[in-house]
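in:
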């Protein structure tokens, strides 16, 4: 049996996702007959049938479903490796791309960057500001090498090391009934609200959906408009005093944990240096914050 090459694997994934040879051929930019031959050749190489084909339909076999799942992961890894290689070739000595959500880094960013740049024999660093919770995906696709994230996050295929933790406070619009109380508990929030985003401390009124937001400015604006509430790290509250927002401590809210994350298969010395620097800076920092700081 011959090893699977990337091109026929890409062709197969296109067919398996489209379940239509014409659409898949348009997607990968070849003629449908050539695509069909490529899939037949892949089946011959593997010695298994991947697709059940009739004149009207295409369906995955059990072997095809297995190859689709593993093939997607293999292509993502291959594409990520190619991006990292091209990035390394673009700058003498390479560069390190750090993905971070603006203002969602526990106030660590400036000190960590300064300490990293002071290291000897490390590559230049480029900061990529991302949307809400985009960092894990960027690490997996190779568009970023390392990231500062807030736990919990999608850690599939990633390693991480906690940096620091700090209290969370509730952001709510002026005039909201909960804004009249000096301190809150989670039960106070949950009485009239439900979690709006899985894995995030965003709350909406019962029966409503979370409004869309892509970054912190959009999130805070949605809160000001009364469309949602959010538990956020106290450092965010300190940086985002807004006249239409009220921030309240929540005594039993879990602390926000900031972490540095990177791909499990990374062997980059620059990534290792960044992780070492980030953990050293955070260890020397301490939080020094309380929920009353707002």
């Amino acid at each position: 049996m011959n090893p699977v090459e990337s091109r026929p694997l890409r062709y197969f994934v296109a067919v398996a996702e489209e379940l239509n040879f014409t659409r898949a051929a348009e997607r990968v930019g070849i003629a449908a007959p050539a695509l069909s031959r490529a899939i037949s050749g892949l089946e011959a190489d593997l010695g298994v049938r991947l697709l059940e084909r009739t004149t009207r339909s295409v369906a995955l076999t059990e072997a095809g479903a297995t190859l689709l799942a593993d093939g997607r992961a293999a292509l993502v890894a291959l594409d990520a490796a190619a991006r990292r290689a091209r990035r390394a070739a673009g700058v003498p000595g390479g560069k390190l791309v750090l993905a971070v959500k603006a203002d969602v880094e526990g106030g660590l960013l400036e000190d960590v960057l300064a300490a990293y740049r002071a290291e000897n024999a490390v590559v230049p660093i480029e900061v990529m500001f991302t949307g809400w919770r985009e960092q894990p995906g960027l690490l997996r696709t190779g568009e970023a090498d390392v990231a500062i994230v807030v736990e919990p996050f999608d850690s599939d295929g990633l390693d991480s090391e906690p940096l620091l933790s700090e209290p969370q406070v509730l952001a709510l619009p002026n005039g909201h009934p909960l804004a009249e109380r000096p301190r809150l508990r989670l039960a106070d929030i949950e009485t009239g609200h439900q979690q709006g985003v899985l894995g995030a401390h965003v709350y909406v009124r019962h029966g409503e959906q979370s409004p869309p937001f892509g970054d912190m400015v959009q999130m805070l604006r949605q809160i000001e408009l009364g469309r949602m509430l959010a538990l956020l790290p106290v450092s965010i509250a300190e940086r985002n005093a807004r006249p239409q927002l009220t921030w309240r401590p929540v005594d039993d809210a879990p602390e926000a944990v900031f972490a540095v994350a990177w791909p499990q298969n990374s062997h980059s010395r620059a990534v290792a240096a960044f992780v070492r620097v980030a953990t050293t800076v955070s260890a020397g920092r301490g939080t020094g914050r309380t929920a009353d700081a707002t």
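note: The chain has three domains: 6-79, 91-162+256-293, 168-249.
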